C-alpha cells in the first residue's frame, strides 16, 4: 500500500535522509522515498498506517507533517 505524507522543515538532502530514517523506523513500513522539492514522503506499507503515527515519529525534530 502506498501512502503520501507532506513534511515541512526539510531544506537539504541530510534533512530528507533524516525524515526517511524516522519513517523507516515505523513498524509496517517497507520502504520510503522522499521528494525534497515536493516536500513529500512516499511510504510503502503492509497496511494503512494512521497519519498520527507519522506525526508522532517526527516529534522532537525540526520536521512536521502537514495537510
Question: What brief labels describe this structure?
Answer:
single chain; 67 residues; alpha+beta; Alpha-Beta Plaits; 2 helices; 28% helix; 34% strand; globular; HMA domain-containing protein; HMA_dom_sf; HMA_dom
Can I get a quick summary?
Residues 1-66 form the HMA domain. With 67 residues, the chain is α+β, with helices and mostly antiparallel strands.
Structure characterization notes:
Pfam families: HMA. This is HMA domain-containing protein. It comes from bioreactor metagenome. With 67 residues, this protein is an alpha+beta fold. The protein has one domain (2-66): Alpha-Beta Plaits (2-Layer Sandwich), CATH 3.30.70. 28% of the residues lie in helices and 34% in strands. The protein contains 2 helices and 4 strands. Strand 2 and strand 3 (40-45) form a beta hairpin. The longest helix has 12 residues, at 13-24. The mean pLDDT is 96.
Poorly predicted runs are none
- Give the overall form: globular
- SSE order in H/E notation? EHEEHE
Average pLDDT level: 96
Helix- and strand-based class? alpha+beta
How much helix is in the residues? 25-40%
CATH topology label:
Alpha-Beta Plaits
Total strand segments: 4
Count every helix, treating DSSP H or I runs of 4 or more residues as helices: 2
* Adjacency order of strands in the biggest sheet: 2-3-1-4
Amino acid at each position: 500500500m502506498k501512502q503520501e505524507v507532506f513534511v515541512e522543515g526539510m531544506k537539504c538532502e541530510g534533512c530528507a535522509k533524516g525524515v526517511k530514517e524516522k519513517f523507516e523506523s515505523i513498524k509496517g513500513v517497507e520502504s520510503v522515498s522522499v521528494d525534497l522539492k515536493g516536500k513529500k514522503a512516499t511510504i510503502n506499507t503492509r497496511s494503512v498506517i494512521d497519519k498520527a503515527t507519522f506525526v508522532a515519529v517526527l516529534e522532537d525534530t525540526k520536521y512536521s507533517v502537514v495537510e
